[in-house]
Amino acid sequence: MSENNLNDESFRDTIATIDAKGKRAFIHPKKPVGRFYDRRKIVSYLLLLFLFSAPFIKINGNQFLMFNVLERRFNIFSFPFWPQDFHLFVISMIIGVVGLALFTVAFGRIFCGWFCPQTIFMEMVFRRIEFWIDGDRAAQIRLAKQEWDAEKIRKRVTKWIVFFIVSFIIANVFLAYLISSDSLIEFIKEGPKEHMSTFIALLIFSCVFYFIYAWFREQVCIIACPYGRMQGVLLDNKSINVAYDHVRGEGESGRGKLIKGEDRTAVGKGDCIDCKVCVHVCPTGIDIRNGTQLECVNCTACIDECDTIMEKVGLPKGLIRYASEDEIVKKEKFKLTLRMKGYIAVLSILIGVFIGMLFLRTDVEATILHVPGQIFQREGNMIVNIYNFNVVNKTEQEFDDVTFKLIQPKGEIKLVGNTKVIVPRQGLTKGTFFVKIPENELNGDKIELKIEVYNKDKKIESATTNFNGPRNFN
Ligand code: SF4
Ligand code: SF4
Questions:
Q1: Which residues line ligand 2 (CB under 6 A)?
Q2: Does pTM top 0.85 for this prediction?
Q3: Same domain, 325 and 450
Q4: How far apart are CA 241 and CA 267, in angstroms?
Q5: The 3-state secondary structure of 379-422, one letter per residue
Q6: 140-161: per-residue pLDDT in tens?
Q7: pLDDT (tens digit per residue) in 263-287
Q8: Residue 374 lies in a domain
Q9: Residue nearest to atom 8 of ligand 1 (CA)
Q10: 427 lies in a domain?
Q11: Final residue belonging to a domain, choices 233, 264, 293
């Protein structure tokens, strides 16, 4: 960067979204046009299609993606996960975090611009609705300053209604992920009166989405998003980012307006013609020419706009482009750094552990625990303990005749209620049974029981639990 612009640090004194009086300043970015924007539109619409359809796709009767926190049922790519699989969930989260860190160290904040739901909804759904109703940047600024006349009221009311309808649709899809699409469809058919609490939750979600996209907007990325705030520790001079080529843009004597007939090279001017289009198109209101900033979500809009300007003035494109600081200053091409190799090693180990655990994951899980607060009882020469059992069936077949066999020591198991135990496919069954052991079989006041679980004649699981007896055992 040229000395004169390099020393200008005044941009650090203000932020674009707060005015001189400390009040919120709304950004009215120019509508982006260009090859990156077109590609991002395609990626965004494919991701939106996936997001909106995933809860309604079923494989083997299982919802493709479901995160039913209340009932503790989770489906990932149609594979059901139970609270018993929580360790897998934790490892997959750690893999996600390490993967994202690696991706950020190498490619900066590309995730934010291309894949983040907040950016996709804001820039590709709500912002496009806004362009459609209010017009481009100049029209939006004019409308914001305009008195509340018929035109402004009509445009504002239309926008607020459309925004709320879209927010309501998003909230419904969000609910389908949480309570399952089957439940959502059933609730819709039965009407809000029958499910008032769910309907209120739906309205709250809708209002939250409306608030974010109508008012809070880029503040999510600047203030609320923890990933955005981690950029400072993750990025270095070798990370690829949306970057302004300050070496080329500033030249020897800085950027400068285009003057007809002027030989810019002769006067030492850089290629930046200071048109500020890159600033006007930025959805977070920053000037990328000040260097990598926390507010930049790598949306690529400034790349497209600057390329258009460069084409118009007959200079090479790419004054703003994906590049690392070292590429701009030292002309170094991208290569794996020691830090990236470290992340790759950790990530590979974690993925290996995860795959191993997936293979070791059992199809059936049985938990047998003492009924809380119950001690042993006597029935003649028998000592009796009472247990609660849980059998989780992660398979696609129903277990229609589940029995329990006491393997060690000698004794018997008697189900409470004497009913047949059935565990549905992808389901869970709870129950209670007594374990009776002859007193002379006990060699301590606390012994371990080995119990096997059968479906008809097939052993499906084994479990251990403790059995309490009297202290004065034989
Ligand atoms: S769009 Fe390009 S030429 Fe115009 S101000 Fe930005 S960097 Fe300079
Ligand atoms: S600086 Fe460029 S890439 Fe970053 S948010 Fe603004 S327009 Fe998008």
A1: 242, 281-284, 286, 288, 296-302
A2: no
A3: no
A4: 30
A5: ECCEEEEEEEEEEEECCCCCEEEEEEEEEECCCEEEECCCCCEE
A6: 999 999 999 999 999 999 999 9
A7: 898 999 999 999 999 999 999 999 9
A8: yes
A9: 272
A10: yes
A11: 233
